Amino acid sequence: MPTTKKTPESAWAAGSETPPSTPFSLLIGYSLQLSLVACWVGGFASPAFAFHWYKTKNSLALSVYAAVVASGYIFPSSYSGSPGLKDFYMRYIFLPFKASQRRFKHLPDKSNPGIVLYHPHGMFSWGFMNGGAYNNFYYKQGFQGLVAASLLHAPGFRLLFVKLLGGINSAEKDELVKKMKGKESFGLIPGGFHEATISYPGNSRVFLKRRKGFVKYALQHGFSLIPVYTYGESATYWNASGFLSLRWWFNDQKLPAILPFGRWWCPLLPRSVELNTIGGEPLKLPKIEKPTLNDVNIWHDAYMQHLARHFETHKKEFGGVEANNKLEIW
């Protein structure tokens, strides 16, 4: 039967403190937030811009674009980013939020590897970064976050977050299997772009009912499943609703289909909300080399229930605008 591994209440692991809030430090924070969003948006929009520059014969813009694309691939594969840049980035990027914290009861390691599952995706996955998935920003027991390959190769995003910050890797099957065979824990956002599409302020939604692949892999390698929920993620931006079938079709093509609006004076910046990234107890899975569909369904249902309990347990203390919500599992 599905079981959870209990951890003493004193085992909470907290992240590092942010610097004092001053006009100058806030300006740095806003700039770093904008850099992240620009890398997301610009990365996906860059082919259209490149085509426009080609048609209008804008050689300067094309040259800059080519340089940005190439710069994401010139670093040696062994390069894991600059520790000083990582520290600077993570100390300031969350400063403009009303508050931000991260709490983990269990951190995976070689002796008890796990998949750290982040919910919800939100517009730009602030909780994924806040919770340390950009390669061990806060914790000695490091784990690497894995993202969609389409984002991994987006020009600006690849340069900043894959190379300069040395944080993330691909969520494709080959990389998952490689890590699990080596008993390397990793972070994942199972809801993906579909979950971003259904994000809306005031709601607590995860896209999980059709996401079962991670459960199959976890069973095959005996990995635990560790739920992480970021209260406040959905409130960082307003998002368009409706036309879900069409937007999910775009998501099926591994493309985002969102229309975010953050601060009124700069819609690309997230709103000033409380961002609380809370990690829960691991759900320990058995090792089944050839799990049946029934095995996968049983443990997928167990994880959804485990996540719902995790949400309910901590929503009053950390939920903020979500404190009275019930988790919606789509």
Any descriptors?
alpha/beta, 8-stranded mixed sheet, two-stranded antiparallel sheet, disordered N terminus
Task: Provide a brief overview of the structure.
The chain has 330 residues and is α/β, with parallel strands linked by helices. The protein has helices spanning 23-55, 59-71, 83-92, 126-130, 149-152, 155-164, 173-181, 192-197, 213-221, 244-252, 293-318; strands at 3-4, 13-14, 99-104, 114-119, 144-147, 168-170, 186-188, 205-206, 224-231, 274-279, 283-284, 328-329.
How would you explain this protein's 3D organization?
There is one protein chain. This protein is an alpha/beta fold. The protein has one domain (3-329). It is built from eleven helices and twelve strands. The protein has helices spanning 23-55, 59-71, 83-92, 126-130, 149-152, 155-164, 173-181, 192-197, 213-221, 244-252, 293-318, and strands spanning 3-4, 13-14, 99-104, 114-119, 144-147, 168-170, 186-188, 205-206, 224-231, 274-279, 283-284, 328-329. The strands form three sheets. Strands 2-3-10-9-4-7-5-6 form an eight-stranded mixed beta sheet. A two-stranded antiparallel ribbon has the order 1-11. It has a two-stranded parallel sheet with strand order 8-12. Helix 1 crosses helix 2 (59-71), helix 1 (23-55) crosses helix 6 (155-164) and helix 2 (59-71) runs parallel beside helix 6 (155-164). The longest helix is centred in the first third of the chain and has 33 residues, at 23-55. Mean pLDDT is 89; it is low at 3-12.
Furnish the topology, listing elements before pairings:
Blueprint: E1 3-4, E2 13-14, H1 23-55, H2 59-71, H3 83-92, E3 99-104, E4 114-119, H4 126-130, E5 144-147, H5 149-152, H6 155-164, E6 168-170, H7 173-181, E7 186-188, H8 192-197, E8 205-206, H9 213-221, E9 224-231, H10 244-252, E10 274-279, E11 283-284, H11 293-318, E12 328-329
Parallel strand pairs: 3-10, 4-7, 4-9, 5-6, 5-7, 8-12
Antiparallel strand pairs: 1-11, 2-3, 9-10
Helix pairs in contact: 1-2, 1-6, 2-6
